[in-house]
Amino acid sequence: xxxRRIAADSVQLSPLPTNIRKCLxxxxxxxxxxxxxxxxxxxxxxxxxxxxxxxxxxxxxxxGQAGVSLSAALARLGAKAVRALLLEMGAAKLFVSKDQxxxxxxxxxxxxxxxxxxxxxxxxxxxxxxxxEDAYLVGLLHDIGKPVLACILLAAEHEVVEVRGRxxxxxxxxxxxxxxxHRSIGCxxxxxxQLPSEISKxxxxxxxxxxSDRGSIGNLVCYANALSKTIGLGSDVSQASDxxxxxxxxxxxxxxxxxxxxxVKGVVANVRTRVDEP
Length: 278
Fold this sequence. Notes:
The chain is an all-alpha fold. The chain has helices at 2-7, 18-27, 34-42, 45-55, 70-77, 79-94, 100-126, 132-141, 145-163, 171-192, 197-205, 217-230, 240-257, 261-274. The chain has 14 helices and no strands. The longest helix has 27 residues, at 100-126. The radius of gyration is 19 Å and the shape is globular. The mean pLDDT is 83.
C-alpha cells in the first residue's frame, strides 16, 4: 500500500509554515521588493531573529555585531542565503516527532543533514565553484524524505497493530523501507515546497555519482554525504559494508571532483566545531 501511494504521489506532506511560505513566495520573484520581504520577515519574530543572527555571525564577517536592522541583515545575506535559511527552518520541523524513538532517530538525521550541507557549501565555496548556497540547500534536504516516511510508517504501524491486530515489521525491514523509498518522498517535498527543478533533480540524483556531469551539485552532495559517514557523523552507518561503501565513494569523489586533500581536511575540522551550533 505504501509503495503504491509513493508511486502515485499521494503521500500527504506537511506544508511549510505560513510565514515561511510568504517569504519564499516573495523571493521567487527575481525583482522582489526588499521592503515587502522585510515586512513579511518582520511579521514573524523567529524568522527576523534568525536572519539577524545569521547576518551578524562569523560566516558573514560580523561576529556579534550589534545594532543591525532586519533590512540591513536581509541585504547582507542576499536572496539565496535567505531562502536557504527559511527552508532550513521549515525542514527542521519535519525532523521532530512525538514518538520518542522516532524523534531520537530523526534528530540524528537532522544533525547529519546539517553536516552534509555545511561540507557541500564550504567545499564548493573554497574550491571557487558557483552555487555554494544551492549546494547547502541540497545537502540539507537530501534526506528530507526519511522523517516524513518514518512518520507514515509509524501511523501504518498503529493501524496494523491496534486496528487489525497483526504484528509489525522488524526494525531491519523498517530501516530498509526508509532507505529504499525516502528519495522519492524527498522529491515530492521539494515539489510541494515549489523549489527550483534543479534542486529537486539534485536531491533525486545524489545517491550516486553522475559521470556525465562531474562538477554537479548532486555529485558534491553525494561526496559530502559519504565523507560525513567516514568521520562518524553519518546517520545510518550500521554495518561494515556501509562504511566500506562510504570510503569507496569518498575515494572516487576526490578524483571525480578534483578536490585538494588539505582543503577537505580543513572543511571537516571546521564543520566539527560548528555542527552542534543552534
